[in-house]
Amino acid sequence: VQIAPRDENGFRALSDLQDEGLVLVASAMAQSTAHLLNFFRALRAELGFYIACLNLAEVLNHRNVPQCFPVPIYKRERHLVFDSLFDTCLALTSPDTVISNTLKTDNKNTFIITGANQGGKSTFLRSIGLAQIMMQTGMFVSAECFSSDICRQIFTHYKCEEDSHMVSGKLDEELRRMRDIVSELKPDDLVLFNESFAATNSREGAGIIRGIVTALAECHVKLFFVTHTSEFACAFYQEYHQDTVYLCAERRDDGERTFRMTEGTPLDTSYGEDLYREVFTPPAQPAERS
Q: Are strands 79-85 and 145-149 parallel, antiparallel or unpaired?
């Protein structure tokens, strides 16, 4: 295209066309650069996740903790099978030997866990939650084998400390948190309860727990409930709920805890006397030599 030397309008129009072209090219370059940067940021995060998994596996190998690739079940039917399941966090932090647990269930929606104080119930509950999260993020699981149905969301309801601001009581705070969880719950979610609703007397606590457990089970929400409220556990067991599994923290006759969960009838005691004797009984004095 030739423009006459004195054609100012022509030069101005050509300049405008060049500017518009440069704007389009610059915009395309900026978008391409942004897409590439976002891709590499996402890649960095994903690679960081997999590198962290490799580091975790290496540490667990040094501690002789088994690992397996879990088998997820994409069905609404309940399924939970594992062999030698470890609490990954405890395996990383404890210098002592960590005890594993084994369980095989099908079509079971509710798990009630009772038994002795300091018997490993909370550790077992944590191992279940960690294994479910690790499986659903594509990780290995700290077990010989692990298979479970897929959960949409995972919620936890653990007991908390007293409200230091004195805004509400402990039971009030627990019920408010439960209300917040219920507002988000949908079928096929998982809820882990650890000694919830123990801030009132056993009769009222049993009534609250029974109402919540029954409602969640009817809504097809999978749940694990660790409780010392034996009034609830024993009464619920007597009603015979076919989709419920009852686990007990094993305790030997001499009071020793094995930290294993076994299927069985709910216990009506948490063996608090064992802890009482351990704390208040003075240690035996060595015999004096004559």
A: antiparallel
Give the domain-ending residue among 63, 81, 103. Answer: 63
Condensed to tens digits (0 to 9), the pLDDT of residues 220-265 reads: 999 999 998 888 999 999 988 889 999 999 888 888 888 999 998 8
Q: How does 250-286 read in b/e, with b if 16+ C-beta sit within 10 Å?
A: bbeeeeebebbbeeeebbeebbeebeeeeeeeeeeee
Is 2 domain-assigned? no
Looking at the structure of the chain, the number of domains it has is: 2
Report the distance separating Cα 153 and Cα 140, nearest Å: 19
| 265's tokens | 């009838």
- List the beta bridge partners of residue 82: 103, 146
**Residue 136: closest CA among 117, 118, 154:** 154
| pTM summary value | 0.81
Lowest-confidence region among 4-18, 57-71, 115-129, 179-193: 4-18
